[in-house]
Amino acid sequence: MRVLRFDLERPELEYYFHELYQAFDPGVKNVLTGKADGVLVEKTEGTQVVLTLTWEGGKALTRTYQFNSSVEPLENSLYKGFLYDFLSEYFEKRLQWGTLTGIKPVKMVQKYYKQGRTTTQIRNRFRDYYRVSNDRTDLLLQISKTQASLIPSEQVSEANRLISIYVGIPLCPSKCDYCSFVSTIVDKKGENLQRYLDHLLIEIKKTGEVLKASNLQIDTLYIGGGTPTVLSADQLEQLMSVLEGSFNLSQLREYTLEAGRAETINQEKLEVAKNHKVDRICLNPQSMNPQTLLSVGRPWEAGLLEQQVALIKSIGFKTLNMDLIAGLGNETPADFLRSLEAVLALDPQNITIHNLSIKKGSRLKDQNGIVVNEGYGEDFYQSVKKRLAAEGFDPYYLYRLKYTRGNSENVGYAKRGHEGIYNILMMAECQSTLGIGAGATGNLYDPVTDNISKVFTVKDVKTYNERFEEIVEKKCGAYRILSMNKK
């Protein structure tokens, strides 16, 4: 692994320089001291920023950038802009996302609109200040427009009392190599699953009691994982019945159940979900290429996925979402596009395109470290977007992650009327969410400050079970404050 040392006059810039440099030259280790194969120097001389990059036996470059001396102190984002221009020249390429490294760029657009900026002003801001390409800026504007009708307006008196609920089932039948979620493998007798469910039901009831005296209304409900459909039909019935008994779900706009792995669902489980008014099912193949799935430790059985899709459709859920991941295993662009065609042939209403992100906690990261490969190229991503548009899918949801193949983005596409509302609200951070269960983070939204405060919980099932009473009391205390404020 190549090592690059940062010699920074302002050490606080390390994080920003690291994030942006990785986007240009992924996989390089950055250090602040010691021996290195290359050196990136940043210093300020009067009203000029001087940047120098030198690699042993390689290219060297020095550039000077002028700034307005009235700006004191110089904003970190301006340094990022100078660094971006410098690295663009050094590597002779530009990035579609410019200097942006955050995960919620659509939220930035929404914030600018709230401030009263025009579309032209927003477009100029992304182009000139953040160096974002016209294509990605257009994508952000399109998604923001789509989301506008699905995000409750601040002018609507009921908006501030709308909340969502996330119920976490962080257990799986096995763990895929690329997965970074803290999930527990269900033991052969299912004892750890049953113990977790017993505690989860108590937390649901206690949380429901906290909300009883409030004026809060449940807007969306999402049961996620892990793989929630590791629950048996009887366990799923018990879970959904307790949710109905603990919360008023009569005004739900969306009820989602993740059924991520085809081998975990059957007709009985799906009928339980349908009877409890679940209207959105997520069935996530990740790839339709058997050799790819087997190479990343994900089970595959010929014809099973197609059989399960037919079963889901026969029961009559409103929306079927299917996920694909670009960059799994040794897939080529052609491999991925074959998967996309196979998924389109199954006629889901919602398709999410992820780009592989190697993160802490995944088996791939443990085996290989963080290795960020080049993406498939801009022509590939445009062809995916164009192919989905031809079938009536429009982008409605976008987020970005670190260490993503090709420094790209994850985009949800949907046919009109089938957008994932919960996903939109989570990225917009405009509504409180109660997180129930291990790994389920609560988001408490303050409309006055437009800020989110987090209610964290432990991620692993074992700790959740062992410290259950302490954990639930702490979470309910935070939700009690929210409830009192909404009476």
From TrEMBL:
Q: Which residues form the Radical SAM core domain?
A: 155-394
A Pfam family reported for this protein in Swiss-Prot or TrEMBL: Radical_SAM
Which UniProt keywords are listed? Answer: Oxidoreductase
Which CDD domains does the record associate with it?
Radical_SAM
Q: Does the keyword Oxidoreductase apply?
A: yes
Which molecular function term from Gene Ontology is one that the record holds? coproporphyrinogen dehydrogenase activity
Which InterPro entries does the record cross-reference, listed alphabetically?
Answer: Coproporphyrinogen-III_oxidase, Elp3/MiaA/NifB-like_rSAM, HemZ, rSAM, rSAM_horseshoe, rSAM_sf
**Enzyme Commission number, as recorded:** 1.3.98.3
Origin: domain of life: Bacteria
Concerning SUPFAM superfamilies, the annotation shows: Radical SAM enzymes
Recorded hits in PANTHER family, A to Z, give: COPROPORPHYRINIGEN III OXIDASE (PTHR13932), OXYGEN-INDEPENDENT COPROPORPHYRINOGEN-III OXIDASE-LIKE PROTEIN HEMZ (PTHR13932:SF1)
Question: What is this protein identified as?
Answer: Coproporphyrinogen dehydrogenase HemZ
